[in-house]
């Protein structure tokens, strides 16, 4: 038996010559359709003269051995080896291997969306997107993974998912050794090398490297939120966000770390977590040497250099460098708190705060410093802590030479220069430079003291006070002066002490030249005027 015969015998995607058998006479046909035509006339003497005899013409690729039963699929496949792209867009220089892809691309230029959903007014540029959308209405998920119970609305995502089980990564970057499980991720990665950004927003000059980011951005202009949770009224601009949200209701965490037992509700969080094990930081800022585990934080960081703040609040003039901060800010206006703790009745405006709170119940501290045994509930504080070891202070004030180890301290300091107090108490007119200070103040009104010491009955309004108190019991003094061996239980005491060495007096009264090392000393001085 040669290679071709062996492949035909085991390949589930091919229709071999003897696939379809007549139930009356046992005759075999190459397709179900031919068999059905035969069965209509089987046993009829008049039809014996016009029996159908079909043979399948097999095409085998000379480059990889792949087999095809249809000429058009074979022709398309060969172009992946030859690089031939015979179809060119009439509006730009972009070329394609298939005519269908070219036509879909040309609709970006024309704005044509000929396919309308049969259940709503939504229209689409191509038929496959319409089918995928209509399954949101019908709930149909016709494709099931061969290795688990997960089902999908499309065959493509199912195949990509199955590669999680098999470990297959068939797409390799032509510029580096990086490999990918799906074609979309491969193309997006190669554009990091080429700098190509072929998708332009129809409402502004912003361009994008991938179609998904382009569509998501345009929804900022249109306000469209086409995806609705099946368990509540919440709507989303992206299907992925909707799926992640629905896992809050179901508790599903289908992605498991390959290095430990930790599981995740979405693939991106799993990838980010696995980089803690591998130390991989594949994304580098174009303006400095900083590297990142994720593309999103890299983009947000690059906006520090560019000053770009593309997200504007719909209720006030405030703008933001990242979508997360924008959403969190808008919830200050709306009062929305969509995340509820699974262990108590507490609700949260953002997912990060919700996760951090739940770790109070579980005691989980998944992030460990690379230089010592200290563990953290969040990745951000771990990174800030590691800068104590490295001495790195990447954030510089735009008004003076002062540098900071973390973004929050940098923003807080800059508000000394600007006088900005963006957070206002919901119960009185008091305003604050930081959201945390506002929340602590609001607990004076509510009487809430949600943090309890694990060693005694003492309760606290804020997490910082709770941690400082627990260090009285443990004797822990994790903050060490960079100029001497003195250690401190909290960061504020460390900063105040280090000003003895540096001579820094950052707090100045606006009505005289007097300066102070601590803010509360400045406040006392104000009271004397």
Automatic annotation (TrEMBL):
Gene3D superfamilies: Classic Zinc Finger. InterPro entries: GLI_C2H2-zinc-finger, Znf_C2H2_sf, Znf_C2H2_type. The keyword Hydrolase does not apply. Its main location: nucleus. GO terms for cellular component: nucleus. SUPFAM superfamilies: beta-beta-alpha zinc fingers. It is found in: Nucleus. It comes from the Eukaryota. Keywords: DNA-binding, Metal-binding, Nucleus, Repeat, Transcription, Transcription regulation, Zinc, Zinc-finger. GO terms for biological process: positive regulation of transcription by RNA polymerase II. GO terms for molecular function: DNA-binding transcription factor activity, RNA polymerase II-specific; RNA polymerase II cis-regulatory region sequence-specific DNA binding; zinc ion binding. PROSITE patterns: ZINC_FINGER_C2H2_1, ZINC_FINGER_C2H2_2. Belongs to the krueppel C2H2-type zinc-finger protein family. This is Zinc finger 208-like. It comes from Paramuricea clavata (Red gorgonian).
